[in-house]
Structures are given as C-alpha cells and as structure tokens.
Design brief:
This protein has about 425 residues and is an alpha+beta fold. The protein has 15 helices and ten strands. A hairpin with a 2-residue loop joins strand 6 and strand 7.
Length: about 425
C-alpha cells in the first residue's frame, strides 16, 4: 500500500514551501509541489498538516482548505491507481493532480501528446502493457520512436505543441496530407496513425483526457496491399548451393537467410540462436525458441537445409551480423543466383499510385525469408494452424498477408485437395 505525507521544503528566506510526498514502492517516491507555503516553520502544525491560525499567516484558512482538498484527492488517487493495477509513476501522479487543480478551466490544459507519448514508450519498454501483459518488443520500439520524431517534426511545422484535444478528425486529414507531401507510403503513414491512436487510448483510459475523436470510424489508418516478393524452394536451394568459402562474410549472410527461410523466425529471434535451442523428441530434431515479440515458445522441426548448414559449421549457428549488412549482401547473393525475374511493385507514394519495375534480387531483404517460409509451407499443403504455430502469428488475417502465392499457384494447391480428386 502506498502512503502520503506532507513536508516542508526551504524556499526563499524563511519561507517554507509545502510538498506532498508519495511513496508507492521500494525506492519509488514522488514529491509534488503544491504551490502553497508558510512564512516560517514555526507557523506549521505538522500533526494536523495545516497552517496555524496566527496573525503572521492571514491566508491560513484558504491555504488549509486548498491543501485539504489536494490531500483528499491525492489519497483517493493513489488508492484508485493501486486498485486498478495501473503502473504508478511521477508522470501519472503529476498529470492527474494538475488536472484536478485545473478543473473547470480548459484554458489551463497543458497535457501535451508528446509528453505522454515519451512516458508511454519509456514505461512499456520494461513494464507489461495492460492489453497484452507484455512490454513492448524491441522490434516495436523503433517504429514507436519514429512516430514520436515525426510528431515533433509536425509540431515544428505547425509552430505549436499538440495537446490531446488537438487530435481531431481535422488533425487526422491534415496530418496525413502533410505526410503524403513528404512522399511517405500509405502503409508507413498508417503506422503513424496506428501508434498515435494507441497512445491516445492509453491516455484516455488513464483519465488524462476525454477526447474520443481518435475512436471515430473516420479516424482510420491508411493501408494497402503491396506485392512483396517471396522465394520458391528452388530459388532458396539455388542460393544455398553457391560456394562462398572465399567470402566468409557473405556466406554468413546467406546461411542466416536460409535458416530464416526454413524456420519462419523473425530476425530478432534467429540472430540469437545457439546449439542450446536444438532439442530432441522421439527421434525428432527440432528448435525450441522463445520469441521476443510475443514471448511465446515455438517448436520447429529442423529442415535438411538447416541441418546441412549446422553440419558445415560443426553444429554451431552462424554468428549474427548487422541486419543492414545482411540486406546489402542479399542483393549480391540474389544476383549471383540469377534471380533476375522482373517484378512490379505498386504502392501509393505521396497520395499517388506508383508502379516500379525491379529485378527480383534487388528486392531481397531479411523479411523475405519469413514471407518465403509461410508461402512455401502453405503451397506444400501444411495446415494453416500448424504454420501459425511455427511462425508465431496469432491472427489469421495477419498471417494471410504473408502468403504471396499467385492466383495460379493457389489454383494448383486447391486442385490437389481430395475434394477435386
């Protein structure tokens, strides 16, 4: 249980400023400046937390009334936060008390979106989110921080800071238009809207504002399907067969990519693989991995491509190298494997639909591996529920976004079903 005490702190001259001290855990405390004061320590009644009724303190009645209201609210606030199991910290306490002091005076509202946004990211970097029961994954922190940077850039463009009440449907359309002028894609813009909605909702649930514009159906995040590439099993095998013994750096990138394409693991998971992840069950050799993003444990049978890589490396996984280095090497690897098929990438940039032609190898990246795993497993007839158990997807809707089989490939798969036999 937390506790509250009132203490004096030296101000100018003999003046003593009145502070409310919150204690809500081991080495967890917060000192709130009430803005009230007494002229001398001797004028303070520590037992009753009040100013003595002396001639030298003519405003003692008003000070005591304000302090009594603040203390009553603070005790109730601390109790409610504990009962609701909301993480308590100085940010939340200050925001709630300031709102209480400023009640009925909207002109005093100074709860800035970026202030709570920064708290949100910092707090949930280590603390579990109420909606998921887990902290933000490292892979999720980067896009959240990108959104914070973009909001600050937009505030510079506007010439003022955004408070919660600014997040309206007008803000939604004007912000998107500003982002489109910078030639961002619809999906990238959609990520910014999604992150803002998440932070706004967190602040709403904590009672920091009553603005529900972000919940309206028109406050949507732009989204479009982009025809990302995947590699077929033959293409993966072509990459695997190339001899890179004289270029060990590129060989590491190639081996890491093939392992990812045969396991469906995210970069954040396969970069920390070691021999301790290899397990055995009734003659089955498999990987046991606790995924960073969801915290779930997945079990993945070892594909022969992975087994061959481990055998070549004396049972050890390749050492992890920077993701950007892998992405750069993959362009070299793909070109060497003659992945020259022409692909057309169509997306909305700056509000306009743009089509661009590429050689397939130029679009290779770390994430192509995970997408290839899901698509190849699907084409091979593996039940979706089993693929999701390996890939860690919790939503079929999200999972099917990874399936990049063409209509004819889907037709071929469907035609092999027992129904058509």
């Amino acid at each position: 249980m937390g506790s509250i005490k009132v203490k004096l702190r030296q101000g100018s001259g003999t003046t003593q400023n009145i502070y409310i001290h919150f204690n809500y855990g081991r080495k967890k405390n917060y000192r709130y400046a009430t803005g009230l004061s007494v002229k001398k320590t001797s004028h303070w009644d520590a037992e009753n937390n009040s100013v003595k009724n002396v001639n030298a303190e003519p405003d003692s009645n008003n000070i005591n009334l304000d302090l009594s209201e603040l203390l009553s609210f603070s005790r109730k606030l601390l109790r409610n936060l504990e009962e609701e199991d909301i993480p308590i910290n100085s940010h939340i306490l200050k925001q709630r008390i300031n709102q209480f002091k400023n009640k009925g005076d909207d002109s005093k509202e100074s709860v800035f979106l970026t202030d709570h946004y920064k708290w949100f990211v910092k707090n949930f970097e280590t603390q579990p989110r109420p909606s998921t029961g887990k902290p933000l994954a490292k892979s999720t922190l980067k896009p959240y921080n990108n959104t914070l940077r973009i909001i600050k850039d937009y505030e510079t463009h506007l010439g003022y800071r955004l408070v919660f009440q600014h997040i309206t449907l007008s803000f939604h359309s004007e912000f998107i238009e500003w982002l489109q002028e910078k030639d961002y894609t619809d999906n990238y813009i959609g990520t910014q809207i999604k992150n803002i909605k998440t932070v706004m909702h967190d602040a709403f649930e904590r009672g920091l504002h009553k603005n529900t514009n972000y919940q309206k159906s028109a406050f949507t995040k732009p989204k479009e399907d982009v025809n990302h590439i995947y590699l077929t099993m033959d293409e993966i095998e072509a990459i695997k067969k190339i001899d890179y013994t004289k270029r060990p750096g590129i060989e590491i990138s190639r081996d890491l990519f093939v392992i990812a394409a045969m396991t469906g693991l995210r970069v954040s998971d396969y970069k920390s693989l070691s021999s301790s992840n290899i397990k055995f069950y009734r003659g089955i050799k498999y990987l046991e991995v606790k995924t960073q993003k969801t915290g779930k444990i997945v079990h993945i049978p070892l594909h022969k491509f992975v087994t061959e890589i481990l055998k070549k490396r004396n049972g050890q996984f390749p050492p992890m190298i920077p993701e950007q280095k892998i992405n750069d090497d993959l362009k070299i690897i793909g070109k060497k494997a003659k992945l020259n098929e022409e692909v057309i990438v169509e997306r909305t940039e700056g509000g306009e639909r743009v089509k661009t032609k590429y050689k397939k190898y130029k679009k290779l990246s770390n994430h192509t591996a995970r997408r290839s795993f899901c698509t190849n497993a699907y084409k091979a007839g593996m039940p979706v529920i089993d693929i999701m158990a390996i890939s860690g997807h919790t939503s079929e809707k999200v999972f099917y976004n990874y399936i990049k089989a063409s209509p004819m490939e889907r037709l071929e798969k469907i035609s092999n079903h027992a129904f058509f036999k």
